[in-house]
Amino acid sequence: MRGAAFPPEVLARMIHHLEAAWPHEGCGVILQGEHGEGEEGPWRVVPLPNVSPTPRIAYAFAPDAWLRVCLEAEIRRETLVSVFHSHIDTAATFSAEDRRQAAPGGVLLLPGVSYEVISIHGGRATSASSSQWMDGDFQGVPIPLPDFRFEKPL
């Protein structure tokens, strides 16, 4: 699972955005560049606006923002690594709705991409999971969340 392998600063930026979005679900993507000759390059966390009509229980990327991220990633030679979002006052598990959006009708929309879900209670991240498509369904594992409260601001 990819999520557990993110550098601490990537997790911190993701958590910061999701906590700031509370009491609504926050969302975004994580991209990774390349240095050349197949070497992994720098990470980029891109928060996206949640335009869901029910933002406390669902997320949806703004189509224009999503298109802009995709075009920028192509120019910068970045790979989409992860889609992330928060769940408000509930478990950090990949829900039936999450599955439906990521693989409508069982057709995976973003092959090779992991999905990180962070549970936010009272504006603070409390738990997280990473899910990836394996053997025809999403399989998830917990992600340990370090406490970033005492580190310098991002």
From TrEMBL:
Residues 8-113 form the JAB domain. PANTHER family: CYSO-CYSTEINE PEPTIDASE. InterPro entries: JAB_dom_prok (IPR028090), VirAsm_ModProt (IPR051929). GO terms for biological process: proteolysis. It comes from Corallococcus terminator. One of its GO terms (molecular function) is zinc ion binding. Signal peptide: none annotated. This is JAB domain-containing protein. Keywords: Hydrolase, Metal-binding, Metalloprotease, Protease, Zinc.
